[in-house]
Design brief:
Shape: globular
Order of helices and strands: HEEHE
Number of strands: 3
Strand content: 15-25%
Oligomer: single chain
Distance between the termini: 23 Å
Radius of gyration: 12 Å
Helix content: 40-55%
Number of domains: 1
Largest sheet: 3 strands, mixed
Structural class: alpha+beta
Strand order of the largest sheet: 1-2-3
Number of helices: 2
Length: 79
């Protein structure tokens, strides 16, 4: 079950991503099927493959910060 802080961090993460990559849209936030303690922020993928690679690298830095600062595993899943 997603708690309030996880939801808040996932929304803030998407907001930062949306600011840098305005073409992406939020699909939903779900628990990972492999680990219910981890969250997936499901978003649309940029049309350009280079932009998607940049997004994944940028998101990796942000999700690492969340893990280190708050102890929550949050991943970006592009669709």
């Amino acid at each position: 079950m997603i708690n309030f802080k996880q939801e808040e961090l996932a929304r803030e993460l998407f907001s930062v991503l949306k600011n840098r990559f305005p073409e992406v849209e939020l699909i939903n936030v779900t628990e990972s099927p492999a680990d219910p303690r981890a969250l997936w922020v499901n978003i649309t993928a940029p049309e350009n493959e280079d932009r998607e690679i940049d997004l994944i690298e940028f998101a990796g830095d942000k999700t690492t910060d969340i893990l280190l600062d708050y102890g929550y595993y949050i991943s970006i899943m592009t669709r």
